[in-house]
Design a protein that fits this description.
single chain; 8 strands; 5-stranded antiparallel β-sheet; alpha+beta; 220 residues
């Protein structure tokens, strides 16, 4: 091959490599922007959680003090009992808010990208049994590309387990739920478990039309 033609081919190759490097640099900045936003939100939730914990300790101390006064001062029993009930309600409310913030903290920790990924993914799926027959579930969906258009799909949840030694499975009574995600979104709800059913696992499937975009399974 003549030398002039070789130089032309080499120049084209270098230009192509430079274009790829520029694209990779821009993409990395986009991922870094998502990570920064998620970390800021995570830090905010942590700060609120610490504040609630400190307030919870303070209220508990006040409740204990009120209980002591009520036990030692017979003439103040009625007044202190009312104060104690009010403080107990405040403690219950603060504990509920603390649990909610703890759940948010776990979700935002899962929101931070583990690496350079693209597309839509299920990054958090969890469930816990409440009151013996109610299963409270939560699903977190993220879209890594900040510049991507809004994503619209259906979230299908399937619960599996056993009943009287036999296999059992069920879906949400209302069917698949619609989810719209720009950067991240969360779905949550309560599933009433039938009597004598032992739930063993849960699977979340993200469907766009007939196309499966993401799936995740957890054992309970």
């Amino acid at each position: 091959m003549p030398w002039p033609l070789r130089w032309v081919v080499l120049a084209l190759l270098l230009g192509f490599c430079a274009a790829i490097a520029l694209w990779a640099f821009d993409f990395g900045k986009e991922i870094a922007g998502l990570d920064h936003g998620a970390r800021e939100e995570l830090q905010r939730v942590r700060t609120e959680l610490d504040s609630l914990r400190a307030e919870l300790v303070k209220v508990r101390d006040e409740r204990d003090q009120a209980q002591s006064i009520a036990n030692t001062a017979g003439t103040l029993v009625t007044t202190e009992r009312a104060a104690q009930e009010k403080l107990a309600e405040q403690v219950k409310q603060l504990e509920a808010e603390s649990r909610a913030l703890h759940d948010d903290l776990g979700f935002f920790e899962k929101l931070i990208p583990a690496g350079a990924t693209d597309g839509v993914a299920i990054r958090g799926l969890q469930a816990e049994v409440q009151n013996g027959n109610a299963l409270r579930w939560q699903v977190l969906v993220i879209q890594a590309n900040r510049n991507a258009s809004e994503f619209d799909a259906l979230m299908e949840l399937t619960f599996t387990g056993t009943i009287n030694g036999r296999s059992w499975s069920a879906t949400l009574p209302g069917g698949a739920q619609r989810v719209t995600v720009k950067q991240y979104g969360r779905l949550e709800g309560v599933f009433e478990v039938p009597a004598q059913v032992q739930v063993k696992g849960m699977t979340a499937r993200l469907l766009q039309g007939t196309t499966l975009r993401a799936t995740q399974t957890v054992k309970l």
